[in-house]
User: What shape does this take?
Amino acid sequence: MSAFDAVLIYDGECPYCSIAAKALEAVDELGALSWYDEAAQTFLQAQFGATPFAMVLVDEPSGRVYAGRAAAKELADRAGMPGIVGSLVRDNYEGIAAAVGLASGRGRDPDPVHETYRLEETARETWPALRDAASGEPVPA
Assistant: This one.
């Protein structure tokens, strides 16, 4: 069982996303899990009633789920980047995602979920499986 307080759900088939997730290993108590993993799909369905294709950061102790731009900004803040960097990442999330998608040949755009959400009780019930499936060492695709 891992000791993660938060789990990042990211595009595990995108080499650029995987490298970025790997770089976040320095952030204490942050695990990472591919969007394609069954535990990620189960969590997303429980949280959103669908499985939006987006970067999602789940912070179980705070009861918050950050998605899209909000996840990018929160990750930049947790990594200790200056506020301007987090704001730039948040404000340019779609452009960055489009460029990364084009470079990686992903063939799909992220879904437009960009807020901070309350962790739904049904999603909280899936947290142990999500946390346990997460790795502190994402493997590049």
About this structure: The longest strand covers residues 6-10.
